[in-house]
Structures are given as C-alpha cells and as structure tokens.
Amino acid sequence: MISNGELNIPDIPAVSGTTTQEYVYERLRNAIMLGAIEPGTSLTMRGLADCLGLSPTPVREAVRRLSSEHAIQVKDNRRMTVPLMTSDRFEELIALRIAIEVHTAKRALPFISDVVIEKLTEIDDRMDGFVSERDLDQLTLLNQDFHRTLYTVNPAQASMPIIESIWLQLGPFQRQILTTVAENYEVDRHKEILAALSTRDVIALEEAITNDISDGAWKSGRNLLDETAPA
Amino acid sequence: MISNGELNIPDIPAVSGTTTQEYVYERLRNAIMLGAIEPGTSLTMRGLADCLGLSPTPVREAVRRLSSEHAIQVKDNRRMTVPLMTSDRFEELIALRIAIEVHTAKRALPFISDVVIEKLTEIDDRMDGFVSERDLDQLTLLNQDFHRTLYTVNPAQASMPIIESIWLQLGPFQRQILTTVAENYEVDRHKEILAALSTRDVIALEEAITNDISDGAWKSGRNLLDETAPA
DNA sequence: TTCGAAAAAATGTGATATCATTTTTCGGAT
DNA sequence: ATCCGAAAAATGATATCACATTTTTTCGAA
Q1: How many of the other CB atoms lie within 10 Å of CB of B16?
Q2: How many Cα atoms are found within 13 Å in the side-chain-facing hemisphere of A128?
Q3: CATH fold match for the domains B20-81 and B87-228
Q4: Rounded CA gap, A214 and A54, in Å?
Q5: Tens digits of per-residue pLDDT, A100-120?
Q6: Does residue B226 register a pLDDT over 70?
Q7: What does CATH list as the number for B20-81?
Q8: A107, B91: Cβ pair inside 8 Å?
Q9: What is the distance between the terminal CA atoms of chain B, rounded to a whole angstrom?
Q10: Which of chain B's residues have a Cβ under 8 Å away from the Cβ of A169?
Q11: In whole angstroms, what separates CA B12 from the centre of its chain?
C-alpha cells in the first residue's frame, strides 16, 4: 500500500541546471510555507518519494535539510510531520522575529537609497491590489519580498537565512491566520516602514517593524490559538 | 588517487543508537568548530567518505546539512571549503550574536533559579582552571556550555538552534583568535552575567552579555583581521 | 620548453538492492 | 466482540552501481 496517497504537493517550476534534491527541497518548502501539507499529517520518506515519483535518496536529503531547519519534525520512530504550533512556541517565534528583523533593519538603514525605497513602494502597491482580491499566497509572497528586499540592501548579510528559517517555521501557521482573519491584514504598517526609511529615522523604523510583525501575526495568532486550544 | 589524503578529522565517540549520517555530521561539525579543517582547504564528498571509511551517501547528507548552515561553502563546481572569514562578515556575525543572545538571555531571565545560577557558577569555575592551562578546546566547549545552560532555562526555546549555527560559523575563526590572543580571554564577564542574574537586573544582563561577546571576540577579531588582510 | 587537445581519472548525483527494525495486518483463543 | 501474538508488509539507512560532467593528466606539435 502506498502511504501519503491523498497528499497534494503543489508543483513548482523546476529550475534548469539544479539538482533533484534541490528541486525537492524547494517544492516541499513551498508546500509547507503555503500550508499545503497540513501540520500533524504523517509523512514517510518513501511515501513522499512515491508521491513525487522519485527515488528515496534525494527526498531524504531534502527532508533532512528541512528537519534541521525545524520545518519538519522527526517523531519518535519512523514518522515525520510538519510540527503543530503551540501558543508558547508561537509567542517565542514572533518575539524572535521582532528581535532579529529589527536588528537587521537597523543595519540595513545606512545602505538605504531612493532607488530601494522606490522598489519597496512598488512592492507595497502591488500588495494593496492582492489585499482586495484576498489572494493569500500572493500576499504572503509579496510580504516576504518586501522584508527581504529591505534587509538584503546590506551586502554583508548573515541574518537573512535565519530570518527565512523563522518564516518557514511560522509559515504553515501564518497561513492559517491569514485565512481566518484576512480582513485584519495590516499593510499600512509597510507605509510606516517606508516613512521611517525616507527620513532615516532609526527609532521610527524599529517601531514600525515591530508593529508590522506584531499586528499581522501576534494578535491574530493569539486569537486563533485561543480558539483551537483553549482550556 | 585519494583526495584529502592529509586531512585530519578528529574522531569523536559514536553515540550508540544513532545513524551514520548523524555521526558524520557531529564529527565534521566538531572538526570545523575546533578548526581542525582549515578554512579554504578543498574538500570533496568522496574524499571525505574515503577519509572516514564510509560510503558517499551518509557523508553527502551530513555535508549538505552543514552547507545549509553555512558551515561549509559549496564552491562554483565540484569543490567545497570551510569558508574564509572576512572583516565585514565577522562584524556582521558578532553583531548578530549580540542581538540574538541578548534577546534570548532577557527571555531566560524569568526562568532563572538559584539552582541554575549555581550550575552556571560551577561551569565558570571550571573555566578558570582551563584558562591558566591554556586549554583552548575545553575553554571553547565550556564557554558554549555556559551560554547554552543560561539560554535553555526557557523551555519554549526557538533561538538556541540559531545561536548554535552562528557559533558554528564563527567557530573556526574564533579558534584562531583564541590561539593568537589567549591571554585576552575575558572570563570576568561571566561573573558580571552571574551578578546580573542574581539581582534579576535586565539592564545589567544586557550589558554583561554584550560585553562578554564583544570583549572575547570583537576586539581580538578586529586585530587579527587587520593583521591578515590590512590594506 | 610551452601550449593545447585528447585520453584518463575522479566526482556528484540519483536509482537500486539489501538488511535490520518497526509497523501493520490477521486469525485464533478467551 | 476483544485481545494477543505471529506473520506479512513497510520503512529508514547505507552500500553499491551507473551515468553524465568535470577535472586532471598525458603527450605530441609548435
């Protein structure tokens, strides 16, 4: 019998010149980030390999990378899942996001130019469109684009991979949040960030980043967690 | 011909019940952290596999994990190295260490008990012994123990793996620093940390952590980098 | 001696095979 | 019907194999 039979892993375009392992990694990562693999679902190496039509070898490598990023949890024996979120863990991850992203934004500030601000403004404008369309996948992607574009203006970048890994851990859950309370999505905070960048105001930037992360995730997330696991 | 012929990867005790892949990962990680693999040395999968007497499969998985943690750099084609440190990258990593570890220490503070303080004091006492003996490996290990013990009193821990990965990126270089300027090693800062913990003083804790990281690494590291790659 | 192209060796990657464990299935005793 | 244990199936891990690509070496022409 084939496990994971009803598993639906969205396909993504295979970048030519890349390895199978890399392709599997990107595809699984994408699936987790978009919530296509429901947290708690039982996964197996061979099940995934069959599901993707590949041999276990490259699948295991990709899965292990994801598990060392805590995007996949290796259970006691022979089973793996996308970890379920707990209230404590969620709070911890959001607080960490704020600490690292504020730090990274501050260090990006000296490298900010008008060209970058314009690029960020353009991303934010595109987000406004998708907000009204309720396109959650595009919103998630563009929101990440916004932050990534800001942080990577600092060329000596060490924190971006870490930030991405935190995003991945929050990904499947964040997605649930957006689904539940899409109307609360605060794009306005991005305008605050842009204003702080324009005036090169470190204090305002710190506050804007904190608010952006808090508003979008924290309040909504608390609500959802209180609902699903109350007493 | 066998590559990596003169490569010396210190053996470590194999934990029973663990996989070969895990063993390779731990062993390579240890070797990198202790500077046994000199940054810049050219590595190959098969070379490492031969060197360890294993098949390429588990080696490739371990190496890939390390490369996704930026402890190993996959060069343009068919070659890998432990990355060389640059001045910019070093500054970036130290600043990141301070940001994350200060944040993590603050969040650990509410969980601090007398038992923990005692445990930390004991670790610090043992360090004093190794300082006079100039045992760099033990010092490095115990210093990490000290910080890890402090941070992990918070049970909902999300930042420790990130901190460990930054340590690993700094590892081979930090080691060079200690070798060069062992006499500057500041264990006193740990006493400042302990004092701040005893009085539950957040401000003092932040300052002590910052000083501990800065003093031990930053100044010495700048000196070394200025020497090796000046004008 | 120097250079460059062809031959040889080595490498990364992924599929397959094998083995020890673990999980699941199934049938009989209570 | 319920429970338990043995047989059967599935799984993770690793070695081996095969193949395309890359690196290194070799060797003859300038």
Answers
A1: 5
A2: 10
A3: no
A4: 41
A5: 999 999 999 999 999 999 999
A6: no
A7: 1.10.10.10
A8: no
A9: 40
A10: 158
A11: 17
Given a cut of 70, whether residue A220 has pLDDT beyond it is: no
Average pLDDT of the segment spanning B32-51: 92
Give CA–CA dist B40/B190, Å, rounded: 33
CB neighbour list of residue A18: distance below 8 Å, 6 or more residues apart = none
- The values of phi and psi at residue A187, to 5°, are -85, -20
pLDDT tens, residue by residue, B141-176: 899 999 999 999 999 889 999 999 999 999 877 766
Pairing of strands B73-74, B80-81: antiparallel
- Cβ A16 to strand C below 7 Å: no
- Whether residues B95 and A86 touch (CB distance < 8 A) is answered with no
Q: Is A197 helix (H, G, I), strand (E, B) or coil?
A: helix
Q: What ranges in chain B are assigned the alpha helix state H?
A: 20-33, 45-52, 56-68, 87-108, 114-133, 136-151, 160-180, 188-198, 202-213, 220-228
Cα B69 → chain centroid: 12
pLDDT in tens, B174-225: 766 655 555 555 557 899 999 999 999 999 999 999 999 988 765 555 555 5
Task: Give strand pairing partners of B85.
Answer: none
Mutation pick from B73, B162, B167 vs chain A, by most beta carbons of A within 10 Å, is B162
Do residues B78 and B194 make contact, with C-beta atoms less than 8 angstroms apart?
A: no
A97 pLDDT band, cuts 50/70/90, is: very high
Residue that has been written with the tokens 């098949």 in this structure: B55
Give pLDDT, residue A24. 97
Count of beta carbons in the 10 Å neighbourhood of residue B161: 14
As a whole number of angstroms, the distance between CA A88 and CA A105 comes to 26
Task: For residues A63 and A48, give the distance between their C-alpha atoms in angstroms, rounded to a whole number.
Answer: 9
Going from N- to C-terminal start, the domains of chain A cover 20-81, 87-228
- A153-177 b/e (C-beta count within 10 Å ≥ 16 → b): bbeebbbeebbbbbbbbbbbbbbbb
Among A229, A215, A230, A184, smallest CA distance to A85 is for A229
As a CATH number, domain A87-228 is 1.20.120.530
User: Which nucleotides of strand D lie under 7 Å from a protein CB?
Assistant: 9-17, 22-23
* pLDDT (mean) for A118-126: 95
What is the pLDDT at residue A2? Answer: 37
Q: Are A120 and A150 in contact (CB under 8 A)?
A: yes
Distance from B144 to chain A by nearest Cα, in Å? 20
